[in-house]
Protein backbone atom coordinates (compact mmCIF):
# COMPACT_ATOMS: atom_id res chain seq x y z
CA UNK A 1 0.00 0.00 0.00
CA UNK A 2 1.32 3.47 -0.82
CA UNK A 3 2.19 5.65 2.17
CA UNK A 4 1.71 9.41 2.27
CA UNK A 5 3.84 12.12 3.84
CA UNK A 6 2.52 15.15 5.70
CA UNK A 7 4.05 18.48 4.62
CA UNK A 8 3.09 21.24 7.04
CA UNK A 9 2.45 24.76 5.73
CA UNK A 10 5.41 27.10 5.58
CA UNK A 11 7.68 28.89 3.17
CA UNK A 12 7.11 27.51 -0.37
CA UNK A 13 10.76 26.59 -0.97
CA UNK A 14 11.03 24.99 2.46
CA UNK A 15 7.96 22.89 1.68
CA UNK A 16 9.49 21.90 -1.65
CA UNK A 17 12.62 20.74 0.17
CA UNK A 18 10.59 18.67 2.64
CA UNK A 19 8.77 16.99 -0.25
CA UNK A 20 12.17 16.15 -1.76
CA UNK A 21 13.36 14.68 1.56
CA UNK A 22 10.30 12.45 1.82
CA UNK A 23 10.69 11.48 -1.84
CA UNK A 24 14.25 10.40 -1.10
CA UNK A 25 12.88 8.15 1.66
CA UNK A 26 10.56 6.49 -0.86
CA UNK A 27 7.25 8.22 -0.22
CA UNK A 28 5.04 8.22 -3.32
CA UNK A 29 2.25 10.34 -1.83
CA UNK A 30 2.44 13.80 -0.29
CA UNK A 31 -0.17 15.76 1.65
CA UNK A 32 0.51 19.48 1.24
CA UNK A 33 -1.02 21.70 3.91
CA UNK A 34 -2.37 25.12 2.90
CA UNK A 35 -4.71 27.77 4.31
CA UNK A 36 -2.90 31.10 4.49
CA UNK A 37 -4.57 33.94 6.35
CA UNK A 38 -4.97 37.27 4.60
CA UNK A 39 -2.27 38.69 6.86
CA UNK A 40 0.14 35.92 5.82
CA UNK A 41 -0.11 36.32 2.08
CA UNK A 42 -3.69 35.53 1.08
CA UNK A 43 -4.43 33.00 -1.69
CA UNK A 44 -1.25 33.95 -3.55
CA UNK A 45 0.89 32.30 -0.86
CA UNK A 46 -1.07 29.06 -1.04
CA UNK A 47 -0.75 29.06 -4.83
CA UNK A 48 3.02 29.47 -4.46
CA UNK A 49 3.14 26.60 -1.95
CA UNK A 50 1.30 24.25 -4.30
CA UNK A 51 3.38 25.18 -7.33
CA UNK A 52 6.63 24.77 -5.39
CA UNK A 53 5.71 21.37 -3.94
CA UNK A 54 4.66 20.00 -7.33
CA UNK A 55 7.58 21.52 -9.24
CA UNK A 56 9.59 18.28 -9.11
CA UNK A 57 6.67 15.83 -9.33
CA UNK A 58 7.73 12.37 -10.48
CA UNK A 59 5.83 9.73 -12.41
CA UNK A 60 3.60 7.74 -10.07
CA UNK A 61 3.49 10.35 -7.32
CA UNK A 62 0.18 11.45 -5.82
CA UNK A 63 -0.42 14.85 -4.23
CA UNK A 64 -3.17 15.92 -1.86
CA UNK A 65 -3.52 19.65 -1.22
CA UNK A 66 -5.24 19.86 2.16
CA UNK A 67 -6.84 23.01 3.53
CA UNK A 68 -8.45 21.41 6.64
CA UNK A 69 -11.67 23.29 5.93
CA UNK A 70 -9.86 26.62 6.08
CA UNK A 71 -11.03 28.11 2.78
CA UNK A 72 -14.28 29.63 1.61
CA UNK A 73 -15.26 29.32 -2.06
CA UNK A 74 -14.09 32.85 -2.86
CA UNK A 75 -10.55 32.39 -1.54
CA UNK A 76 -10.30 28.89 -3.00
CA UNK A 77 -11.28 30.10 -6.47
CA UNK A 78 -8.83 33.00 -6.29
CA UNK A 79 -6.06 30.59 -5.31
CA UNK A 80 -6.87 28.09 -8.06
CA UNK A 81 -6.85 30.79 -10.72
CA UNK A 82 -3.30 31.76 -9.72
CA UNK A 83 -1.91 28.26 -10.32
CA UNK A 84 0.17 27.47 -13.39
CA UNK A 85 -1.52 25.12 -15.88
CA UNK A 86 -0.94 21.38 -15.88
CA UNK A 87 -0.65 20.70 -12.15
CA UNK A 88 -1.98 17.31 -11.04
CA UNK A 89 -3.38 17.09 -7.51
CA UNK A 90 -6.52 16.45 -5.47
CA UNK A 91 -7.92 19.22 -3.27
CA UNK A 92 -8.75 17.81 0.17
CA UNK A 93 -11.17 19.34 2.68
CA UNK A 94 -11.19 22.81 1.11
CA UNK A 95 -14.22 24.11 3.03
CA UNK A 96 -15.81 23.45 6.41
CA UNK A 97 -19.47 23.13 5.33
CA UNK A 98 -21.40 21.12 2.78
CA UNK A 99 -22.84 24.25 1.18
CA UNK A 100 -19.40 25.76 0.62
CA UNK A 101 -17.95 22.48 -0.63
CA UNK A 102 -20.74 21.89 -3.14
CA UNK A 103 -20.56 25.50 -4.32
CA UNK A 104 -16.81 25.19 -4.89
CA UNK A 105 -17.08 21.79 -6.55
CA UNK A 106 -19.36 23.18 -9.25
CA UNK A 107 -16.57 25.57 -10.29
CA UNK A 108 -13.38 23.71 -9.33
CA UNK A 109 -11.22 22.18 -12.09
CA UNK A 110 -9.57 19.75 -9.65
CA UNK A 111 -10.96 16.62 -7.94
CA UNK A 112 -12.15 17.17 -4.38
CA UNK A 113 -11.71 14.78 -1.44
CA UNK A 114 -13.60 15.24 1.82
CA UNK A 115 -12.60 14.01 5.27
CA UNK A 116 -14.03 15.77 8.35
CA UNK A 117 -17.37 16.23 6.59
CA UNK A 118 -17.62 12.46 6.09
CA UNK A 119 -17.83 10.94 9.57
CA UNK A 120 -21.10 9.00 9.39
CA UNK A 121 -22.55 6.61 6.82
CA UNK A 122 -25.20 9.13 5.83
CA UNK A 123 -22.52 11.78 5.23
CA UNK A 124 -21.01 9.61 2.50
CA UNK A 125 -24.46 8.79 1.16
CA UNK A 126 -25.15 12.54 0.99
CA UNK A 127 -21.85 13.20 -0.79
CA UNK A 128 -22.71 10.50 -3.31
CA UNK A 129 -26.26 11.68 -3.90
CA UNK A 130 -25.20 15.29 -4.47
CA UNK A 131 -21.94 14.46 -6.26
CA UNK A 132 -20.14 16.56 -3.66
CA UNK A 133 -16.76 14.83 -3.87
CA UNK A 134 -14.56 12.43 -5.82
CA UNK A 135 -12.97 10.78 -2.81
CA UNK A 136 -13.07 10.36 0.96
CA UNK A 137 -10.34 10.57 3.58
CA UNK A 138 -11.60 7.81 5.88
CA UNK A 139 -10.43 8.44 9.45
CA UNK A 140 -11.19 5.30 11.42
CA UNK A 141 -11.65 6.84 14.87
CA UNK A 142 -13.86 9.62 13.45
CA UNK A 143 -15.95 6.96 11.71
CA UNK A 144 -16.48 5.19 15.04
CA UNK A 145 -14.09 2.26 14.61
CA UNK A 146 -13.39 -0.55 12.16
CA UNK A 147 -16.97 -1.77 11.74
CA UNK A 148 -18.39 1.64 10.72
CA UNK A 149 -15.21 2.20 8.71
CA UNK A 150 -15.85 -1.01 6.80
CA UNK A 151 -19.38 0.12 5.97
CA UNK A 152 -18.10 3.46 4.75
CA UNK A 153 -15.47 1.68 2.65
CA UNK A 154 -18.24 -0.35 1.01
CA UNK A 155 -20.35 2.74 0.27
CA UNK A 156 -17.32 4.38 -1.33
CA UNK A 157 -16.55 1.27 -3.37
CA UNK A 158 -20.10 1.10 -4.66
CA UNK A 159 -20.06 4.79 -5.57
CA UNK A 160 -16.60 4.74 -7.19
CA UNK A 161 -15.12 7.16 -4.65
CA UNK A 162 -11.38 6.93 -4.05
CA UNK A 163 -10.16 6.41 -0.48
CA UNK A 164 -7.30 7.57 1.69
CA UNK A 165 -7.32 5.45 4.87
CA UNK A 166 -5.98 7.38 7.83
CA UNK A 167 -6.61 8.60 11.36
CA UNK A 168 -6.18 11.87 13.20
CA UNK A 169 -3.30 10.57 15.32
CA UNK A 170 -2.44 7.27 16.95
CA UNK A 171 -0.03 4.60 18.08
CA UNK A 172 0.91 1.23 16.60
CA UNK A 173 -2.60 -0.01 17.39
CA UNK A 174 -4.19 2.72 15.28
CA UNK A 175 -1.76 2.17 12.42
CA UNK A 176 -2.38 -1.58 12.44
CA UNK A 177 -6.09 -0.88 11.96
CA UNK A 178 -5.32 1.56 9.13
CA UNK A 179 -3.10 -0.98 7.39
CA UNK A 180 -5.62 -3.81 7.62
CA UNK A 181 -8.54 -1.70 6.41
CA UNK A 182 -6.40 -0.23 3.65
CA UNK A 183 -5.59 -3.68 2.30
CA UNK A 184 -9.29 -4.37 1.77
CA UNK A 185 -9.72 -1.40 -0.58
CA UNK A 186 -9.37 -2.22 -4.30
CA UNK A 187 -6.04 -0.92 -5.61
CA UNK A 188 -7.70 1.31 -8.20
CA UNK A 189 -9.60 3.13 -5.43
CA UNK A 190 -6.89 3.28 -2.75
CA UNK A 191 -4.87 6.46 -2.98
CA UNK A 192 -2.79 6.09 0.17
CA UNK A 193 -2.62 5.16 3.84
CA UNK A 194 -1.24 7.38 6.57
CA UNK A 195 1.27 6.02 9.07
CA UNK A 196 -0.08 7.97 12.03
CA UNK A 197 2.49 6.25 14.25
CA UNK A 198 5.17 8.35 12.57
CA UNK A 199 3.94 11.21 14.74
CA UNK A 200 5.07 9.15 17.74
CA UNK A 201 8.18 7.80 16.01
CA UNK A 202 8.13 4.43 17.84
CA UNK A 203 7.41 1.31 15.78
CA UNK A 204 8.39 -1.31 18.34
CA UNK A 205 4.86 -2.54 19.02
CA UNK A 206 3.83 -3.35 15.46
CA UNK A 207 4.60 -6.17 13.01
CA UNK A 208 3.36 -4.27 9.95
CA UNK A 209 6.07 -4.61 7.32
CA UNK A 210 7.34 -1.18 6.31
CA UNK A 211 9.56 -0.92 3.28
CA UNK A 212 11.51 2.29 3.85
CA UNK A 213 12.95 2.63 0.35
CA UNK A 214 9.50 2.46 -1.24
CA UNK A 215 7.36 3.63 1.67
CA UNK A 216 4.85 0.87 1.14
CA UNK A 217 3.63 -1.61 3.72
CA UNK A 218 1.86 -4.93 4.01
CA UNK A 219 -0.06 -6.28 6.98
CA UNK A 220 0.67 -9.73 8.48
CA UNK A 221 -1.35 -12.68 7.21
CA UNK A 222 -2.04 -14.29 10.58
CA UNK A 223 -4.90 -13.63 12.95
CA UNK A 224 -5.21 -10.28 14.65
CA UNK A 225 -3.87 -6.88 13.72
CA UNK A 226 -0.16 -7.67 13.95
CA UNK A 227 0.18 -5.62 17.10
CA UNK A 228 1.82 -7.17 20.15
CA UNK A 229 1.24 -5.21 23.29
CA UNK A 230 4.31 -4.84 25.48
CA UNK A 231 2.87 -5.07 28.94
CA UNK A 232 5.66 -3.21 30.70
CA UNK A 233 5.24 -0.20 28.43
CA UNK A 234 1.46 -0.12 28.71
CA UNK A 235 1.62 -0.50 32.49
CA UNK A 236 3.92 2.50 32.69
CA UNK A 237 1.61 4.49 30.42
CA UNK A 238 -1.45 3.47 32.46
CA UNK A 239 0.28 4.44 35.70
CA UNK A 240 1.27 7.81 34.23
CA UNK A 241 -2.29 8.45 33.02
CA UNK A 242 -3.62 7.46 36.43
CA UNK A 243 -1.42 10.03 38.12
CA UNK A 244 -2.59 12.69 35.67
CA UNK A 245 -6.23 11.76 36.26
CA UNK A 246 -5.65 11.98 40.01
CA UNK A 247 -4.30 15.49 39.69
CA UNK A 248 -7.26 16.52 37.55
CA UNK A 249 -9.91 15.02 39.85
CA UNK A 250 -11.88 17.48 41.98
CA UNK A 251 -10.97 17.50 45.70
Structure description:
The radius of gyration is 19 Å and the shape is globular. The chain is built from nine helices and ten strands. The protein is an alpha/beta fold. It has a single domain (4-248), classed as TIM Barrel, CATH 3.20.20.
Ordered list of secondary-structure elements with their pairings:
Layout: E1 4-7, H1 12-24, E2 29-33, H2 42-53, E3 62-66, H3 73-81, E4 90-92, H4 98-105, E5 112-114, H5 121-129, E6 135-139, H6 140-143, H7 146-159, E7 162-166, H8 172-183, E8 190-193, E9 209-211, E10 216-218, H9 231-248
Parallel strand pairs: 1-2, 2-3, 3-4, 4-5, 5-6, 6-7, 7-8
Antiparallel strand pairs: 9-10
Helix pairs in contact: 1-2, 2-3, 3-4, 5-7
List keywords for this structure.
9 helices; TIM Barrel; 251 residues; globular; alpha/beta; eight-stranded parallel sheet
